[in-house]
Design a protein that fits this description.
This protein has three helices and two strands; from the N terminus they run H-E-H-E-H. It is mainly alpha-helical and 93 residues long.
């Protein structure tokens, strides 16, 4: 296995993984950025996801469209960031 496969295998609790395999891994942190972030949020909403598993493990990087000048990014990223902060406290109460 190459280094990527070893990392994924460990995160999935498996001895080995291979290309093309679907892996259910426990991740340390997730990153979205201003170009794919709105697409990600839309995809999650379409499949009925209303909160994230741990808002402390999500990093939003705004590095492509700074300042946010497109209405799509502004209308999606800012509310999304707020809902990510609130989702953990809502799910634990």
């Amino acid at each position: 296995m190459n280094i990527t496969e070893k990392i994924l295998a460990k995160a999935a609790g498996e001895k080995a993984v291979s290309p093309g395999e679907i892996v259910d891994a426990q991740v340390d942190i997730v990153m979205i950025h201003d170009l794919t972030g709105p697409l990600t949020v839309d995809a999650f909403r379409r499949i009925g996801v209303d909160h994230v598993w741990d808002s402390q493990k999500i990093v939003m990087v705004l590095d492509h469209q700074v300042p946010l000048n497109l209405s799509r990014q502004r209308s999606c990223i800012r509310p999304c960031a707020g809902s990510l902060e609130n989702s953990e406290s809502e799910s634990t109460t």
